[in-house]
Every structure is written in C-alpha cells, then in structure tokens.
Amino acid sequence: MRGARGVAALTGSGVSAESGVPTFRDAQTGLWERFDPEELATPEAFLRDPKLVWEWYSWRRELVARAEPNPAHRALADLERRVPSFALITQNVDGLHRRAGSRNVIELHGNILRTVCSAERLPREPGEGAPPRCPRCGAPLRPDVVWFGEALPPGAMEAASEAARSCEVFLCVGTSGVVYPAAGLPREAAGAGALVVEVNPEPTPVTPLAAFALRGRAGELLPALVAAAFSAG
Description:
Radius of gyration: 18 Å
Number of domains: 2
Strand order of the largest sheet: 3-2-1-6-7-8
Largest sheet: 6 strands, parallel
Structural class: alpha/beta
Distance between the termini: 14 Å
CATH class of the largest domain: Alpha Beta
Number of helices: 9
Shape: elongated
Strand content: 15-25%
Order of helices and strands: EHHHHHEHEEEHEHEEH
CATH superfamily of the largest domain: TPP-binding domain
CATH topology of the largest domain: Rossmann fold
Helix content: 25-40%
C-alpha cells in the first residue's frame, strides 16, 4: 500500500456499527420491533403509509446524528491524504465518512441525512409534517436513500466500478459481501490485478478473493495498517 498510486475502499455497516449506528436489520427496537425493515424500505411501503416510513427514518436519522466517526473512518480519511488517487465507496447512508474528513466518497445507497421530494427527487429542507410536503409541488418528502427495488444514484456504480478497476489496492471493510451490485466490486478489482485486502471479524464471500484477510474490528486494524504502511523508513 505504501507504493500504490491508487487505492479504493469499499465499506459496509460493520464500520458504522463501531460508532454505535445499528446495522439496517438491527435497527428495530422498542416501538419498531414488530416491523420488518425490508417492509419499511420500499417505495410501496411509502405509498401505503408515508407517515410510518417517515417516522422510522426520522428515528434512524436521530441515531445517526448522535454518532461520531470512529478510528476506522478517520484512518480511511488519513489514507486518502497519503496516496495520489483514492476513492471511498460506501454502502452506508450515515455520512460519517465525510464527517471524518474523506472527500472522494461514492455513496452507493444515498444519505439518510438528506431529504428529497418524492416526485422530483430534488433536495428539499424538511418542514412540518410527517412527512412534510415539497414547497414546490406538494408531493411528500422522503429520505435520500435507495430503497429496495430502486436504482442506485445516477453514475454512482459507474464511478465505483472505475475506481475498482483502476486501483492497485482494494480494501473491503466491514461488509458482508452479499449485497449486490456492491458485492461485485472486489471481484472487479481482483480481475483488474488489484491486491484485495479484507478487514472483517468473520469470513465472507470476499475472503477467497483476498490476498490478505485481516480478522478483527476495523477501528483497531485500519489505523494500525495505515500507520505501518506509512511509518518512517
């Protein structure tokens, strides 16, 4: 990694879990425990009961707003400053990578802290209501995240694929390796000749592709890895 001119990293929910952000399927507590998250994260659910979906995402947004970037987020931001070309591809919607200082971030699944008009898909500031209404067209506002059955943000996957194919080192951090199309990126990187490094407590489908599989918490392993790669001498 010390000599690499291009590095890309793919991150998943395991990174944010270390900041206390519940993973998507774990975000069901108390009032929400009787709901299947996959039944709340669809366009159909929003059409059926927009108030319920809006309030669930408002609750999740509050959890994210209280969270702070952890050492893994900061180590990736540090790595970006040390290599000529760096891309951070994330499946997370919490914005913690940007808050940690990462600049070239590709958010495959959107950002829960942003709000858009459900009709025009343009950014809007939420007002009163559950959900609030678009001041321009009157359509309900929604979180700017990718729901099941929806396409990824325009250009996001193309940019992620380009980063995977052009890097020399590809880090796969805290992701299960089963959610497509992001799960195909390590294979793209390996096929283009990149060194694939997995950082995860458990083996995943990415493990057979990895030249190195580092077992443990990203918040412990990534700072050590970056420090070792760029230590004096």
